[in-house]
Amino acid sequence: MQTHILGYPRIGSKRELKKACEQYWSGKIVLEELLTAGRNICSQNWTIQKEAGIDLIPCNDFSYYDQVLDMSLIVGAIPTRYHEVALKNNSSELDLYFAMARGYQKEGLDITAMEMTKWFDTNYHYIVPEFYKNQQFKLNSNKIFNEFSGAKQAGINAKPVIIGLVSYLLLGKEKEDGFDKLDLAENLLPVYIEILARLQEQGAEWIQFDEPFLALDLSGKAKEKYQWVYEKIRKQFPKLKFIVATYFDGLKDNVSLAVSLPVNVLHIDLVRNPEQLDDVLQSVPENLSLSLGVVDGRNIWKNNYEKSLSFITKAVEKLGSESIFIAPSSSLLHSPCDLDFETNLNAEIKNWLAFAKQKVKEVVTLKELASGTADEKILADFEDNKKAIADRKTSSLIHNDAVKQIANTVTEEDAQRKSPFKIRKEEQQKVLQLPLFPTTTIGSFPQTAEVRSWRAKFKKGDLTAEQYDTLLKEETQRTIRWQEEIGIDVLVHGEFERNDMVEYFGEQLKGFTFTKNGWVQSYGSRCVKPPVIFGDVSRPDPMTVYWSQYAQSQTEKWVKGMLTGPVTILQWSFVRDDQPRSETCKQIALAIRDEVVDLEKAGIRIIQIDEPAIREGLPLRKSEWQNYLKWAVEAFRISSSGVEDATQIHTHMCYSEFNDIIKNIADMDADVITIECSRSQMELLNAFADFKYPNEIGPGVYDIHSPRVPSKEEMIELLIKAQNVIPAEQLWVNPDCGLKTRHWDETEKALIAMVEAAKESALAL
Ligand code: GLN
Ligand code: ZN
Questions:
Q1: Given the CA of residue 564, which atom of ligand 1 is nearest to it?
Q2: CA-nearest residue, atom 10 of ligand 1
Q3: Helices 143-153 & 31-52, crossing angle to 10 degrees?
Q4: What is the tens place of the pLDDT at every residue in 82-133?
Q5: Greatest Cα-to-Cα distance within the chain, rounded to the nearest angstrom
Q6: Is 125 a catalytic residue?
C-alpha cells in the first residue's frame, strides 16, 4: 500500500506567494526574488509531505498563477497577441506568463488578458486556453523539469503532475469556427511525449495525469480520444508508471472507459461519490491499481478514520494491498494550509478540523492503520479520532433541536407567497407608487479606503463603537441624500457597515465560525477565507434592521433592505458534511426569512435577497441539476415568502447565463430580479423574453466592473434593446451589480446619467 498527494496548496502557509507576486508586479522586487519565494514554498511543501511519510510527493503542482496557464505555456499555446511581449528586451518567461494572466498595459502595448473561468464546481478560477484551427504546439518552457530537479535536490524523486491531454483540450475554448478542439489532440500529443521523455531522462518514475473530465458527462468523441491518447502514450513509455486522477464526481457511466485505459493507477474521489467504489471494484482489471481518495481535499473536516478504513478494507480484499494507494480526494489546493495557525478557534471546533498539512498526516495514518503497521502513537490517534467524530455527532455546539424542529416542519405553504404575482403587483403598486422604469442600485456604494479604515480602527480598538457607528451613519445619510438629489426611485443604504456580503451575515448567525488564516486561492494572487458552517444555523437577533431602519428614517422615499440569500451563503462557505447541503441551506433560509419578516415589521417595504451564486452551485453532472435546483429554489422561496403581498421582494444575480435554468429562476418568484446584462448588450435578456418571464426585471445598463462612465445615450440605447424583448411596464433601470469597488466620482456621473436615461425613456413612450 502506498500514499500520495495529488497537489498541495501553493500560496504558502502565510500567503507568501500572494505577497511576492504582488510585489513583483508593482516593481518592488526583482524576478530573482520572486523565484526564490516560489522555490521556498515548493521546498516547504515537499518537506511537510516528506516528514509526514508520504510515498509519492507531487511536483509541478506549484504555480505562480494557475496550473492550466502553466500547461498553456509549457505546450506553447500562446495567443499571437502576446508575442510582442515575449520579444521585449529583458522580458522573461514569467513576464509573458503574467501578461497572459493579467493583460499587459505598458511601453506602448495594450493587450487584454486571457479569459478566466471557474475550475469545475470550486471557487478556484483558471485561465482558459485559447485554441485555433490547425494550431501547432511546441515545448516552450522548462518549468516542469526545473521543478522536478528542484525536488531531486531536496532528496525527493517527485511525481510530476500534468493536466491530462484530453482534459487540457476540454478546458479550452475554440476561438474560431470550423473545428473541434478535440481534433487538436494529434498536434498536441508529440509535445506531451517530449515532456514525458525528458522527465524519464531526468529519472522520473511516476507521472500523474489529472483527468477530471472522466468524472463528467463525456461525448462519444471525447471517450475515443481518451483511448487513443493513453494507448499512444503507453506505447512510447512502457516503463513509466502513470496515475490517472479523476475527482469532483464519480466515474459513473465512464467506469468501463476509465478502467480500460492502459495506465498503472486510477484515482477516484470517494468523498464526492463513495458509491462508485463498488462499481469500480467490479470492473477493475488485474494490472490496474486503485487510488482511493478518502480524505476530503475540498473541505476542512477531520477524516472519519473508521469510515475511510471500511472503504480501504473493501478495496484491499478485492485487489490486495499492493494495488492500493491512499490519497486525498482531490488536490489540496482547495484546502487552507495549516490548522496549527488557528489559535483563536474554539478548541472543541478546532478538534473537528483538518487543513492541508493535517490531511497529509491523515493519509499516512490511514495507511498505517490499514496495513496493520500502526504503532502505539498511531493507535492513540485513532482513538482520538473516534472521540472527535463521536463528539461532533452529539455536541451541543452543533446541535440545536429547536432549529431542527422548525426545519422539519416547513410546509409547502411556507415556501409560497400569499398570492400570485399578478395580485401582488397591484398591492405593491398601491403602496409603492413607482413610476415607469423605476431606478435603483444593487446595494453597495463605494467602500472607500476611508470607510475600510474605520472598520480596521474599530476592530483594533482605535475607534469606540459609538464613534464607528456615527461615522457609518454619516456616510449612510450622505448616500441617502445624494440618491434623493439625483432622483433615484428606490434607495439603498449603501452597505458601508459590511466587510463582505457573506461574512457580515455569518458573523451574526449561530452555527458559523471564522478562521484567522484559512486562506484558499481563488485566482492568481487572490485568496478567500470562507466562513465555516459547523452547526445548526439560527439567527439570535436581527442582523440588518438597524441600518435599514436608520436609512429609511432619513428619507420619504423607499429604502430597499439588503440581504444575502441562503444559496449564496452556503456556496461561499465551508459547509458541514454531517448532513446534506440542502438541509444546511434550509436552515440558513429560515434565518434569512426571520430577517425578512423583521425588516417588514420595521417598515421596510422592498427587500432584496441576493443570490449571485445560485448558478455556480449547479452539479457537474446534468442529471443532478434538477434535484439541486429544486432545493435551492425552495430555499430562496422559504427565505422570501414570510411577507405580505404588498411587500416587494427583489433578487439579484450576476455573471450568469440563464437559458438552461430560466424556468427555475422564474420559480423563485421574486417580484423583481436584477441581473448583470450590459456587457452582453442585453443578450442575456433573451432567455427571459423567450420564456415570457412574468415578473419584473432590471437588466443592468451600466457595467460596474470597469471605471468607465457610460453615457446617457448608451443606456437609452440599451433600454430600447430591452424594450424590444420585454414589455416596458416590467422593466427596472439599474447598474449590473453593487458599486463597492468603484470610486465616487465615476459612480456619481454614471448614476446621474442612468437616472436621466430612465426618465427620457419613460417620456418617449
Ligand atoms: N448587494 C450586493 C452589493 O451590492 C450584491 C453583490 C453581488 O452581487 N456580488 O454589493
Ligand atoms: Zn452582482
A1: 1
A2: 738
A3: 50
A4: 998 888 877 899 999 999 999 888 888 888 889 888 999 999 999 999 999 9
A5: 83
A6: no
